[in-house]
Amino acid sequence: MILLSFDIEEFDLPTEYGLAISWEEQLRVSREGSGHILNVLARHGVRATFFCTARFAEAAPDVLRAICDGGHEVASHGYAHSAFEEADLARSREILRRMSGQPVTGFRMPRMMHVADEALLRAGYRYNSSLNPTLIPGRYNHLNQPRTWFRREGLLQLPASTTPRVRFPLFWLSFHHLPPALYRRLARLTLRHDGYLLLYFHPWEFMPLQGISGLPRLVTRNSGTVAVERLDQLIDDLSRRGSGFGTFTEFVDSLPK
Fold this sequence. Notes:
Layout: E1 2-8, H1 23-44, E2 49-52, H2 54-59, H3 61-69, E3 73-76, H4 87-100, E4 106-107, H5 117-122, E5 127-128, E6 135-136, E7 140-141, E8 150-152, E9 155-157, H6 172-177, H7 180-194, E10 197-201, H8 217-220, H9 225-240, H10 248-254
Parallel strand pairs: 1-2, 1-10, 2-3, 4-5, 5-9
Antiparallel strand pairs: 6-7, 8-9
Helix pairs in contact: 1-9
């Protein structure tokens, strides 16, 4: 099963580089980027899981409705993208449950930071997808963690996919910087080896970020229309090879108890 996921959040990325950006612009970028994602998914008839911050959902309920109307799963990305306290786990889950009308049982911490399993269990979550089991210099080193799904303290862990053996990450930066054919090949290799594939992206990737002065090329390269085309090609390639897509909850329900 292929598990596509998207972290739907206010576009606060420029603040990481000391750049000012208005709340209105943060919403506009994420709203329009989410629309591009939903259009690609609808064109291929595939469903995905959207990890939403409750703050963005409250400010852009139209986006949350479109996600639900498309048959996608809503999961929690916390309340705000740049601030966290433990109470946000239950708070965001309840807001998203009420707004979406769906059970909200999955969580992903912003920027794949650490979150305590015990706190997630107390807040009522079934699974956690906050782990990228590789080395990202300056961000984290998770080489000592399992590559594929595992259970810990009664909570199912769903790490982002990395290639077998060398643990090359298949996250959004690889998607933008590798030649598309190579990225698709690595994705297929990982899918065959693991039996599933878990990828994650953000709405702002599908917007033309090159016009934002001060953002590094590491972030802006192949954003906007190029990213939309690459996502379309990735889904088409995997679909033509007979690979099925599903939500995280569908995958969780398929696992042995």
